[in-house]
Amino acid sequence: xxxxxxxxRAAAREAAFPPDVADIPPVLxxxxxxxxxxxxxxxxxxxxxxxxxxxxxxxxLRSLYRDLVLVRRVDVEATAxxxxxxxxxxxxxxxxxxxxxxxxxxxxxxxxxxxxxxxxGVAWCRGVDPLALLxxxxxxxxxxxxxxxxxFHLYTIVIGSQTLHATGYAMGIxxxxxxxxxxxxxxxxxxxxxxxxxxxVNEAFVWAAVYNAPVxxxxxxxxxxxxxPLERQTRIPLYQRARGFGFPGVRVDGNDVLATLAVxxxxxxxxxxxxxxTLVEAFTYRMGAHTTSxxxxxxxxxxxxxxxxxxxxxxxxxxxxxxxxxxxxxFFASVDADADVLAARVRTGCLEMPDPGPLEIFEAVYAxxxxxxxxxxxxxxxxxxxxxxxxx
Length: 392
What we know:
about 400 residues; alpha/beta; Rossmann fold; 2 domains; 6-stranded parallel β-sheet; 14 helices; 8 strands; about 45% helix; globular
């Protein structure tokens, strides 16, 4: 029997390795982007989502604008503090303010949010003091706030794990019977486009769908998973992945605070009334670095950044307020003054933050200290005492 001849080396490699993902055409499908406020500040009516903004009057519009400005100012101040050596690291939200403020203001007191490490705007909406965030990144606290008080969980560093936490919590809500009407409760899990490739996120989708859990999966698609672009994460729009798990998905303009507010309100209402999970993809852009340890100029084009600056979430609300006569120059000046006061408080509070004692690392590890933790604490205390004896 004559053996078949081996294929040419190039052909063999082509058979073994698929083409580069950038060369694969995306799956063509209609992509709908929910937008209620254009980058120029023009209000766009929508047949479904307008009803979820029925209570949004001039005062609410001004409040949303104030939120956006103050959240960005905290972010800018924290970035400066890190550059000056006052924070160990900082994860900026620059450009994502509307996605976070819009979704954060959609939450009701009985809801519970599970963030990543970048949801500073959601923390603001849930009443968390910005100094509590800075304490975490400064290494001065073990967490910084009481999650039960704010309905806002501690920051999660492990990518995607908070989606499972949110799903489990939501399953508990359903088992307790706290769903079925508008007064029910729901959870919301925040994650990025990069985290959508994690196993934990997809497992959370499975459990949420099977148990019809009252959870909203809120993906801030800022186009970059650190230095990996979106096209290397998926061949279809992220919100369409929800179909395969059996629940609805929607893509919203993540730089449009009104659209984000309306879409999240509907998703949370559906969850509270027993209609199960929803995946919300907030289509936005990270205008800053992934963290202060990152240099985005090494992997993305400056022209892309400039294009997204024209879609700035703050400027479009400002344009809408000004053109519609909803606010005047005095209002804008007062918000800027409030931002200056907040920035000064954040800076002073950060610099005056006391360093934790060495033994505080053992505090709040468990609700009730275990034997092992107590032994470790005692051993470390004895170790520290040895330094005092040597210097005596």
